[in-house]
Amino acid sequence: MTKPLNIGLVGYGFMGRTHSNAYRTVNNFFTPGYHPVLKAVSARDAVKCQAFADQWGYESIETDWRKLVARKDIDAIDICTPNNLHKEIALAAAAHGKMVLCEKPLSMNTADGEEMADAVEKAGVANTVWYNYRRVPAVTLAKQIIDSGRMGKIFHYRANFLQDWTISADLPQGGAALWRLDAAAAGSGVTGDLLAHCIDTALWLNGGISNVTAMTETFIKERKHNLTGKVEKVEIDDACSFLCRFENGSLGLFESTRYARGHKALYTLEINGEHASMKWDLHDLHRLQYFDHKDEGIVRGWRSIHVSDSDHPYMKHWWVPGLQIGYEHTFIHHVADFLQSLTDGKPCAPTFREAIETQKVCDAVLASAKSNQWANV
Amino acid sequence: MTKPLNIGLVGYGFMGRTHSNAYRTVNNFFTPGYHPVLKAVSARDAVKCQAFADQWGYESIETDWRKLVARKDIDAIDICTPNNLHKEIALAAAAHGKMVLCEKPLSMNTADGEEMADAVEKAGVANTVWYNYRRVPAVTLAKQIIDSGRMGKIFHYRANFLQDWTISADLPQGGAALWRLDAAAAGSGVTGDLLAHCIDTALWLNGGISNVTAMTETFIKERKHNLTGKVEKVEIDDACSFLCRFENGSLGLFESTRYARGHKALYTLEINGEHASMKWDLHDLHRLQYFDHKDEGIVRGWRSIHVSDSDHPYMKHWWVPGLQIGYEHTFIHHVADFLQSLTDGKPCAPTFREAIETQKVCDAVLASAKSNQWANV
Amino acid sequence: MTKPLNIGLVGYGFMGRTHSNAYRTVNNFFTPGYHPVLKAVSARDAVKCQAFADQWGYESIETDWRKLVARKDIDAIDICTPNNLHKEIALAAAAHGKMVLCEKPLSMNTADGEEMADAVEKAGVANTVWYNYRRVPAVTLAKQIIDSGRMGKIFHYRANFLQDWTISADLPQGGAALWRLDAAAAGSGVTGDLLAHCIDTALWLNGGISNVTAMTETFIKERKHNLTGKVEKVEIDDACSFLCRFENGSLGLFESTRYARGHKALYTLEINGEHASMKWDLHDLHRLQYFDHKDEGIVRGWRSIHVSDSDHPYMKHWWVPGLQIGYEHTFIHHVADFLQSLTDGKPCAPTFREAIETQKVCDAVLASAKSNQWANV
Amino acid sequence: MTKPLNIGLVGYGFMGRTHSNAYRTVNNFFTPGYHPVLKAVSARDAVKCQAFADQWGYESIETDWRKLVARKDIDAIDICTPNNLHKEIALAAAAHGKMVLCEKPLSMNTADGEEMADAVEKAGVANTVWYNYRRVPAVTLAKQIIDSGRMGKIFHYRANFLQDWTISADLPQGGAALWRLDAAAAGSGVTGDLLAHCIDTALWLNGGISNVTAMTETFIKERKHNLTGKVEKVEIDDACSFLCRFENGSLGLFESTRYARGHKALYTLEINGEHASMKWDLHDLHRLQYFDHKDEGIVRGWRSIHVSDSDHPYMKHWWVPGLQIGYEHTFIHHVADFLQSLTDGKPCAPTFREAIETQKVCDAVLASAKSNQWANV
User: Fold this and answer.
1) Where are the domains of chain C?
2) What residue in B sits closest to C238 (Cα-Cα)?
């Protein structure tokens, strides 16, 4: 007897699809005590919104998210809009006592994030931020390995997120699928879009970051803006890299860009500890590379772990060893954990409060890049 | 306005799950003109069958597949039983005018397969066999590359399917999930279970096989039988390899085993042509390795193609470049193609008739292994 | 005080260069008790032979190998000629009481090989065959791992040697560097040239082979012959594959070709044992892939061992960990071991007698391919 | 008729061995017009020095480098000492009109380097610095690809050099093989030892660096000092990373450490250009990864180039395609190029003057790490 959880989705873009798929699929593979009901989806364009609802089985649509958050038949609001709308929707949803699941990054900046965290906490509603890569089985396994003590003292953490889709100067900015290039909608460029993922995972795996020195660049200075039709200055960062010190004494190095030819969505991370090291990358997300210095010398080497066995995180719910799952499953895992957290009465990480930590690092990174000085987080 | 297609599923094991997931998901990503309705599932154990129906949303259950195939509200029978039941169910389904989707291998032998093909053709019902690996995007891409003429004359084709799950002598045979070790239920061991996949893909990519010389082995001679409780002789082949000649003049080499430590489900294939070569393996199924001799010499090398772009087979229906799909999607693709074939009034490959070709090769392989002589297909 | 060992080299082709380099270099890295002296090189073309002698520091030349083997100042004859001359030179060298180092394959067939082994044993002279791949550190490490018992019972052995240099129909056969395509000089095609390497390693690592079923093919039926200037039938095998049973009960699968586009010299081998598996390939010869089932489940995976540590075979003589050696070093290792064997008064494997075993398998393979029957070794 | 070049080597450590091997081997594979003669080696310990001379064939020894540089029978001085002796020896050698080949880094700092460059230029003697990785064939190929214009505008350059040999706190510093941990002898830690390599290659491939922001760390604060026998503060940098801007507008990111478990000597570099990208790493130094966006979309992927064909840099001098060379060959190539440069009357890059550029970047990096400010180069 699972309980229904009525979902109201705001936004039907790429993330709207991944979340909808997760809601529809989760109960075939997991038994978390609740089952999502696709109650309504909201977007300004009624025709497109209805088509999306038909495709995914939403019972109804709204063309104003304010109406959606006010509906009595909705239990949880899922925010899949551009970043600049996160705060207003979250505050309204909390005010109506709705649970809130918010796409990352949580907010345009730390101050907004704190306001949002205050709101959901004051309302006492369940909340979580969709940093989905925590729930790639190989990444969750990395966390297990760290927690098991196998790594020993950590010396280095490095991560990058490399893409190549904005190299053409003919690509416009703004509107629809291109809002990520528009500073007004996105807040920042790769920092909030890509580095935020790297930072969230890093904080989870390796603890807090103390201070940073950063560098940003905008390679294409002007692009046509889809909303105005004019060629306008590009205000986002095309690339951002930073060095940092973690609170545990380890050194960090992060990089992100949309100008790395040959990398479609290459999020990689590596951790070097006293006894062991690990590497992972999103292009082959079902593998974790692991090196254990305790192995006997002559047969020591990096192990390529095909994370598909039933004792690997989340994998007993899927197929049989050797058969891989993919990107979309990270969202299914997040929904499963969120639903289970409701059953257990516990928070589902990262909560809004936890996700502010990533926001703080992003703010420090952007401040450092602007001032050419080290910045404290 | 998509049309409903009422599905009656026989068997709720591993394949029952993959098919059910495909039926539930296909219309969120594809628009093939029909949408499957999970009308009923059949299995002898009513309690377990009902639990499966609840988990996946089947409207009803049957404990006798004969009742299922006779139900008027069923359009298509999907056979997910052990191999020894395929024929009887398929013949009954065809007799009731139902479409039939049959798990691979089609039959226990060529003669049975021909009887089945005759039946569905006589009944004039749509039919297909679930050789799902044809619809891994990287494998479909390999087919496109061959059809484009890039390969030139083919010299070599090699494939293997390596597993390691039966190495322990303590593993029993027969019953439930272990029917694959029971010759009475499975017909053969790795030949029908694993090599059949390799052969189906090979025939599709490289054309007919003329003759074979084969070798089989059963490493563990006796195992406890779950159905009798006694230690009994193991009658299946634990390993099988064969050499062959293709009709196009190329040489083939195939191997399969469940005793290759370190390989969970490693289906690999490689094709060497006059101008180009290709490699693929199931453990990283979203990649195709491609070598093109026409590339300029100093920058020539094997290309690792991350098959996730929108112009790759099936991929425009999924996420964005760099984000991989997995094993289960091959079944979704098969359902999408099957439904589209109904809309188009065309067969969905491989049909029963086409799948007999794989059966013929399997029969020749087993005969050769028994006689220690080359055998014609 | 190392002792001199006066070398007389017959043939100055590719192998003449690799051996000469080994003789010149061995004492800088190893201290095997002897140091080779490059006394003389023999070849029919005096001008080319002198140029080779100058390049490599040979003290003198001969244009008739019969004179070379008779010279009193020569201790050891090194045979680097086409295969059809091995026997005659070896018999003559042994008759003059010279040690003999013979390029592989030892002989044109088993009978010749036995005559040669009888001769060197009767003469009581040190002898060895240049199956150099045994002395790739990663391959030697594989042997250590097997001998340590880590593998348990062996189930499977597979190897192939894939090249792509004879795909063009314009390539002539015979003479100079192309004697490998001329059956009169080479005896066979890929069987003696490439599979002989795979078989030698296999016998060393996995023991004797009982019987085989084989298939050969000659894709280009006629080629211009460099010695006659005429288009002549190609008598060698372009490709050869075979299945076999080892005496230890394991199954073998071997393949070789010069028509595998994209593979320059890809010798790969894999061994699957009860507890562990190993893989190696010549294109990245400094790495051994190792899978150990005894590793804890969640961190189990194929280990990529970079065989460059000081406790790896031969490696303490070279540089520092992480810095790789290459192809030529296998010959240096062979010379070091040969010289050490003289110091120790022990044979240097593989001796002529031992190398006959490979010849027997090659003969059985060719016989099976001709008869289309299984052949005993 | 090649001319002799009489070599006087100072220091017989790891680099003394690599250089000696290069001198002994170069003329077997290259014909650069000169042949090195191993005239003398110098080191303070006469017994060890003589043993080295015997092992490598040096005609004589000196226990005082001052005598060596003054000898009339020496043409070229090769400096393989700890860094703090480079300047004094180089100045003395130049004063005696000797050619000078100096190990990297050229000097303890930029000022010293300039003094050295002035000295060799004033003396008019040939000079070069052993940044050997420029002459890995795959790296030289990368340079050819850049020069060919295939890359287009460069956006990103990243490199790291990761080792793991100083993680144990029990490892002492100073003396013999451990001088690299002693600031007095080495000047700096990983910056001069490892990053200098990365920087030299980067300047060669991607042009000048404008400014940097850097971070260093010394993880083990105190170690026993071999020369004093006391536990002393460790003054070198165990790890160093920096961000930078290149003069061509691209962004750089560099990292080096001796605390990255699992990496023995992993020098990796990657370049992302408008049209293409390249990657290389020292652990598999015979491969270059190359991605070309101009390849047709469906078959586009990273190409793994096995740099062993005769049209690849330096490779026509070695074996046949598919057979790899290793680390030591980079020094042979450098000697071949140096000797050829004498024949051609041209400088052999990098000259002392050119190597100062790397020194300037190292100085800026160390200054930035100290001041926590961006530093101009």
Assistant:
1) 3-132, 134-376
2) B155
